[in-house]
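Cross-posted from the bioinformatics board.
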Amino acid sequence: MSTEQIAACLKKGRGRPKQFDRDSALDKALEMFWRHGYEATSMSDLVEATGAKAPTLYAEFGNKEGLFRAAVERYVIKFAEKGKALLARPDCTVAEAVENFFRAAASMFTDKSLPSGCFIICTSAALSASSEEVAQMLKCRHHLQENTLRDFLQSRQALGELSADAPVAALAKYLAGTLQGMSVQARDGATQADLDLIVSTLMAVWPHLVNLSAERLQPLPVAVAEEA
Amino acid sequence: MSTEQIAACLKKGRGRPKQFDRDSALDKALEMFWRHGYEATSMSDLVEATGAKAPTLYAEFGNKEGLFRAAVERYVIKFAEKGKALLARPDCTVAEAVENFFRAAASMFTDKSLPSGCFIICTSAALSASSEEVAQMLKCRHHLQENTLRDFLQSRQALGELSADAPVAALAKYLAGTLQGMSVQARDGATQADLDLIVSTLMAVWPHLVNLSAERLQPLPVAVAEEA
């Protein structure tokens, strides 16, 4: 066993102080970041919110960015995975699965016990140009939502539940945009009923959306707009 | 003439230093706020960006909040009014006007010479809970977009260009959500072509959207989602 391996074992064995509850601290850090954004939240805010000692937070997460990354993972596990599970239900039609996904988002984005909107969308929008690395990570997460929707549509297309020429990539982008709009409106004070109205509108045109073909969605000439 | 009136005249007559170009300073302040958000932008950042002296900025705008409010007004005049003008063109059908409005937004949100996305949507999302007053002002502005779209649809409905039972309030909310989603995606690195794909998808289902009736959009039971 090398010196490095021994050091690693010792470090592992030493463990963290028993009184530190990592998940509970992460939940509180997540809420701070969600409510105030990455940059407006300081390490001392996080120390206060989590009730942990500063050295404990540094030992566990390295720095504010490390704590933020862990909070993002916590959010994904606690909330984003739920949406994915709703899409994965094989007993639902495509339309039912999409509706369940969006109704759950409408409910979660306006849940009074949580900050409004989607954590990833809110925090990403709040990042200034100076937090390039964190912005990059959030961009990937963001695309994860669109990718989750595209993967779902593709899997149902493979099963023959959507026509072979349904424009699944464009639909996923459109659905992700609707989800982001709902998050912005929730942050702006929209109620669950407001968001449910958007979902109802979406679902009312859903049969037409899935019947679009990729050709139909070629960008149109923008001549009229440019004339103005 | 009272002492107060004389003082007011003298103050007015004195004017501001000739070298201070209010609009140009506002344009630079607007870009700072747009790129970095309200809270992450300090008065010293604004002094540097505008090239004005700090006392000049304080005399002209009072404080950071005053400068921000003036920057919001500047944005509305420079950009938001353009969208309103596209909707107001009487030579366009409802669908053409909506498409012009959204294509112009896709173009502006991804204009390389400006920060990405809509200034109002980006800045509003970036506000922490501590800037309550500014948040309140932005909320009103935000609703202005939805209200602009609703006023447009209502005016065309009054002309008989939309059926009398078309759910204009719901449509305005849905369109505002789409616009907000486009702004979030632009901020996330979407290209004009990406946003144009969303606009094409929207326009492809537009004939079905305007044919919805208010009754059809009553919230559906969410039983399936809750079971999950």
